[in-house]
Inverse folding.
């Protein structure tokens, strides 16, 4: 097991190095630093971002928006998913709304949010509308797939509803929720950066992406992109860890 | 006395029960013996309130006062042995009393050392014993058992039947027990209802007065009862 983990990590490192070499080769061939920066100039941009105090305010602002929008989505998705899972009538009331939200292009949601909200709240609203349906659907799936025989047993012994939710429905939905959280977290970072880029709040990674584009600082743009990727990966990693701990 | 009067139940346009009547003696073990698919589990689901019925009356049962030993153990996989019993008692006892009750029943079925284990760590027989302990731990006056020993080898079946009888002797609660195994019925039951056909009818009622510990089901007396029941079921 340990040997295979080391080997997997070795393969990953070789893979990353290979792509970095290809990037460097492409940089030499294109030879236009302003449009296509080298990995070294992106790394140096990242270093200057890391050394700059303002970067942390920017990263914290976007992270806070991700956390707020994700928390709202999680609370709404889990509670509504549960209610709709156990009550078909409520599900039929909410189903059209979920379909509409899921099918609406993200750009329409961002533009509507720009009209309705303060610029700093636009990414939160957009994030919620994108993540909530994912968590909702996964929770719903988990509830629907809960073992009916266990529920029958609980009903027979008059187990309280809250206890059934905690000990049966929720635990049985965990694998579905875990997958939903991973997907929603990944999307959340992308959507919130995009919404920031369009709504232009004072602090935000998306704002910095647009700034970098306006000032033609492509290495800066890529450096911020790498930061989003790293943060998104870290959030997914901790989410999976959390779920594996809860699942026992 | 539990009385089932003029019970009517249809399933997919077929009459399962049509004016079905049955009386169950309190504080005794009543066995319902019949071929598979005749409607034995449906009868249990009706008695326990899990299934509706068209018409009829069931007297002498409080729906909140029933324990049900299902065909399969129905254990919650992510809860420990202890928690699997605890979940049905949270609404019944305060924590201290609850702990006492759970430990008491776990001890009777020889599972007190496995309290923290998960069901997947238990053997088939241990799961069934846990299921029996959970059923008895719930303070009901009526216990329904749906083929609880099905699929177990003879040795394990005897151990589990022993555990069951040990628990039953503690409180003598009313037990209705479904099986299609004549030997099981002879070992456990105080009265045996043989049911057949659709709609279901009672073909015969056998009363066994011997104490459980003194029963030799291979003696001539029991062989005669077995032959009689076999004949009824094969007709």
């Amino acid at each position: 097991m340990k040997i295979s983990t080391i080997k997997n990590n070795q393969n990953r490192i070789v893979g990353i190095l290979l792509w970095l070499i290809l990037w460097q080769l492409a940089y030499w061939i294109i030879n236009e630093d302003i449009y296509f920066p080298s990995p070294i100039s992106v790394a140096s941009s990242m270093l200057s971002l890391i050394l700059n105090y303002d970067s942390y305010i920017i990263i914290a602002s976007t992270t806070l928006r991700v956390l707020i929008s994700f928390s709202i989505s999680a609370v709404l998705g889990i509670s509504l998913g549960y209610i709709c899972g156990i009550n078909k009538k409520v599900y039929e009331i909410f189903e059209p709304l979920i379909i509409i939200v899921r099918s609406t292009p993200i750009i329409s949601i961002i533009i509507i949010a720009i009209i309705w909200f303060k610029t700093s709240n636009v990414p939160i609203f957009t994030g919620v509308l994108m993540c909530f349906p994912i968590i909702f659907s996964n929770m719903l799936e988990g509830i629907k797939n809960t073992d009916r025989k266990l529920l029958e047993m609980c009903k027979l012994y008059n187990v309280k509803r809250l206890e059934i939710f905690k000990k049966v429905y929720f635990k049985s939905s965990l694998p579905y929720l875990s997958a939903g959280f991973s997907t929603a977290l990944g999307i959340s970072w992308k959507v919130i950066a995009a919404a920031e880029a369009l709504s232009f709040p004072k602090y935000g990674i998306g704002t910095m992406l647009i700034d970098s584009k306006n000032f033609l600082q492509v290495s800066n743009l890529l450096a911020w992109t790498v930061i989003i990727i790293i943060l998104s990966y870290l959030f997914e990693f901790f989410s999976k860890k959390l779920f594996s701990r809860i699942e026992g | 006395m539990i009385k089932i009067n003029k019970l009517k139940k249809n399933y997919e346009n077929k009459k399962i029960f049509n004016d079905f009547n049955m009386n169950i003696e309190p504080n005794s073990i009543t066995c319902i013996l019949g071929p598979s698919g005749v409607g034995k589990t449906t009868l249990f689901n009706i008695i326990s309130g899990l299934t509706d019925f068209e018409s009829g009356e069931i007297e002498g049962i409080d729906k909140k006062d029933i324990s049900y030993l299902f065909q399969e153990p129905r254990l919650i996989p992510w809860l420990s042995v202890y928690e699997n019993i605890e979940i049905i008692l949270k609404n019944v006892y305060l924590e201290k009393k609850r702990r006492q009750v759970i430990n008491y029943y776990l001890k009777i079925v020889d599972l007190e050392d496995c309290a923290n284990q998960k069901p997947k760590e238990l053997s088939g027989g241990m799961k069934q014993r846990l299921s029996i302990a959970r059923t008895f731990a719930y303070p009901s006056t009526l216990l329904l058992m749906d083929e609880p020993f099905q699929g177990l080898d003879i040795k394990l079946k005897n151990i589990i039947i022993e555990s069951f009888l040990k628990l039953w002797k503690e409180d003598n609660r009313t037990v209705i027990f479904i099986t299609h195994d004549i030997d099981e019925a002879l070992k456990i039951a105080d009265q045996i209802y043989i049911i057949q056909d659709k709609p279901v009818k009672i073909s015969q009622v056998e009363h066994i007065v011997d104490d459980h510990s003194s029963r030799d089901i291979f003696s001539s007396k029991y062989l005669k009862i077995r032959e009689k029941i076999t004949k009824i079921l094969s007709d």
Q: What stands out?
A: Residues 161-199 of chain A form the longest helix (39 residues). Chain A has a mean pLDDT of 92. The CA atoms of residues 17 and 126 of chain A lie 36 Å apart. Chain A is about 85% helix and 0% strand.
